[in-house]
Amino acid sequence: xxxxxxxxxxxxxxxxxxxxxxxxxxxxxxxxxxxxxxxxxxxxxxxxxxxxxxxxxxxxxxxxxxxxxxxxxxxxxxxxxxxxxxxxxxxxxxxxxxxxxxxxxxxxxxxxxxxxxxxxxxxxxxxxxxxxxxxxxxxxxxxxxxxxxxxxxxxxxxxxxxxxxxxxxxxxxxx
Length: 175
Fold this sequence. Notes:
Helix content: 10-25%
Largest sheet: 6 strands, antiparallel
Number of helices: 4
Number of strands: 9
Order of helices and strands: HHHEEEEEEEEEH
Structural class: alpha+beta
Radius of gyration: 19 Å
């Protein structure tokens, strides 16, 4: 007997069965250990917002971050470990609500992992030194790369160009 009620139940069963598929996907391992510090150690190093983004793959609200309109000359470093990630010369206004860069300072500074969360297929950007989640990279950026590294402000710290040597010499990676 095929009634509207039976059809609705079948549809609900189908949706419930397959809606969790994306959660079962394991992203490929990257070259770092995302758990290089115990949770309690990261909590002591990072603010609650930075912890949520860097360690739990969260996202800060659009247009809320400290660096989305920031235009000083210098470098952006990982809030978790102090590694250099992006130069201000590669920053551009994307109107996305997050700081955007067309390339990292060095190819070895950041890594990418396939991210299938929230029903989307994206490339997650991580700090190669500490494994912190930084944001995502998209193929809609400006020349010369055509890439847009869309990064959470709370995952970054900024070092002005005139104090790079002094500041980076004193940065101790989180252990």
